[in-house]
Amino acid sequence: MFKGKFSIAIFSMLIIISACSNKEEQRSVENIDSNQKEEKPVAAEVEEKVTYPLTGVEAEETELNQRPIAVMINNHPSARPQSGLHKADVVYEVLSEGSITRFLAIFQSEVPDIIGPVRSAREYYVDLSKGFDALYISHGWSPTAQEKLEAGEADYLNGLFYDGTLFWRTDHRKPPHNSYISSENIAKGAEDNHYEITAEVEPFEFLSEEEVVNLKGEPVNNFVIKYDNSQTWHATYEYNQTKQSYSRFSNNEQTVDLESEEPIQLSNVFVVEMEHNAIDNYGRRGINLTSGGKAFLFQNGLMQEVEWENRDGRILPVKDGELIKFVPGRTWINVVPDIEKAFLIQS
Q1: C-alpha span between 25 and 10 (Å, rounded)
Q2: Exposed/middle/buried for 60, CB within 10 Å: 0-12, 13-18, 19+?
Q3: Residues 221 and 168 in one domain
Q4: Which 8-state DSSP code applies to residue 341?
Q5: Strands (E), 56-212
Q6: What is the pLDDT of residues 294-303, one digit of tens each?
Q7: What's the rounded Cα separation, in Å, for the pair 281 and 275?
Q8: Cys bridge to 301: 53, 123, 239, 314, which one at CB 3.0-4.6 A?
Q9: Euclidean distance between CA atoms 130 and 310, whole angstroms
Q10: Residue 24 lies in a domain
């Protein structure tokens, strides 16, 4: 009887000791696991590169919501050199009357202190600005452009109503080649008219550094876009391998900023053929911005024969239906009525 009770007591103690031992082992394993978890190296946080939406260039600031501003800039010989044009992210060069071209300059990453000379609006420039939901700046307008703007198709500031206030006239040039506006006055005009000055800007698609290095195409370093047989209306581009950018020349004079003398430096030159037709006796044109068609794209000293499409109001390069990305930097788009007559490769 005693032996039985003693055996039961011993057995119970063994169970208790075993249970305590299992708990200690479990705690030990948990501590090891915990220590191992703590000792695991923490992955370094990778900072996402912030780039400007229309240039793809890295930006220091994180607030990139400047609403695009589209300014009609004069390209008459009496208006050269222009002010602020070198800071435009995108420039459309398009015929206005006769052989005269004008620039629609889209500013987003930078808005220059001085912009001009400012000239009058045309309906197709208004349409091009709408692809960026831009605040449209002009001094004057054609009847069809007036209809579009007064119908509310774009927010606008017109020098006809602000001459001597938001816009000013310089002494060193004669009208109509002497109207200018500033970034400060654009902001004031937007505020007075209750226009938005910030926006979420839809970005272009850009090539990576590796994709830029591996670009394919025909080597072309110098070429001319002719809007007339006269040199006055020739736009010449030269690619600099060292700077990896294109310089632009009008009438054999380099396109530079009037105030700083800083030259235009471009990463993409896009030449597109669009149907042009006369719409009045004054020589104003209508231009088909929607049909798509022939185009040449110049990047990294190489030429690609492509096509253009209008996608959500923007004129973009495509090949076999696929969008072609831009090289990070500034882009110039030359619109011509006949690409074979307008385009000339220089040796």
Answers
A1: 22
A2: exposed
A3: no
A4: H
A5: 69-74, 90-95, 101-107, 114-115, 135-138, 156-158, 167-169, 179-182
A6: 999 999 999 9
A7: 18
A8: 239
A9: 12
A10: no
Q: Are 335 and 92 in contact (CB under 8 A)?
A: yes
Domain range for 321 is: 209-345
Question: Letter for the amino acid at 15?
Answer: I
Instruction: Identify the residue whose tokens are 């490769």.
Output: 345
For residues 304, 306, 311, 316, the Cα torsion angle rounded to the nearest 10 degrees is: 20
Token reading at 286: 């209508």
Question: Could you tell me how far CA 92 lies from the centroid of its own chain?
Answer: 12
The position carrying tokens 């197709």 is 124
Tell me: do 217 and 334 sit in the same domain: yes
- Beta partners for 323? 318
Nearest C-alpha neighbor of 104 from the set 96, 112, 249: 96
- What is the sign of the dihedral through the CA atoms of 130, 85, 324 and 234? positive
Structural tokens at position 42: 């923490």
Q: Which residue has the tokens 């385009």?
A: 343
| 110, part of any domain | yes
How many folded domains does the chain comprise?
2
Say whether both 140 and 91 belong to one domain: yes
Its pTM stands at 0.86
- Write phi, then psi, for 39 (nearest 5 degrees): -80, -10
User: pLDDT tens across 264-311, in order?
Assistant: 999 999 999 999 998 887 778 899 999 999 999 999 999 999 999 999
85: nearest Cα among 56, 64, 109, 114: 114
CA–CA dist 255, 27 (Å, integer): 77
**Helix residue spans in the chain (DSSP H):** 2-39, 123-130, 143-150, 159-162, 183-192, 209-213, 339-342
**pLDDT, position 139:** 98
